Amino acid sequence: MTGSDEEERAVQAAIEGELRLLDPAVRASPEAVTRLLDPEFTEFGASGRRYDRASILAVTSAVDEDAPDPTVATGMSGVLLAPGLVHLTYTTQADGRPVRRSSLWRCSDRGWRLYFHQGTPAGTS
Asked: How many CB atoms lie within 10 A of CB 69?
């Protein structure tokens, strides 16, 4: 396996995990979200709030999986920073509000899990 093959597989695994976390059906399942979050997970939300694994589970389980306007992600790309560590960046749009997002995915014996996430409101221009 070449370095670029390793990077491509790692980035793809992180993207797949990120997209699952954006899926309203997954977000509505605390068990599914728990499987995707690292035990040391931290998030700085677009609201400015800080979340840990327990507090984000309360937020995600309150999501309406039948919401008419699901979150749309665009421009998702990633890079392998070190073996077992991928950085993703992308933009989401929900309720007419763009948010720039950055995630760190860490691979462990339990697979790829989200270690850190930050959402920053983006200007409309």
From this structure: 9
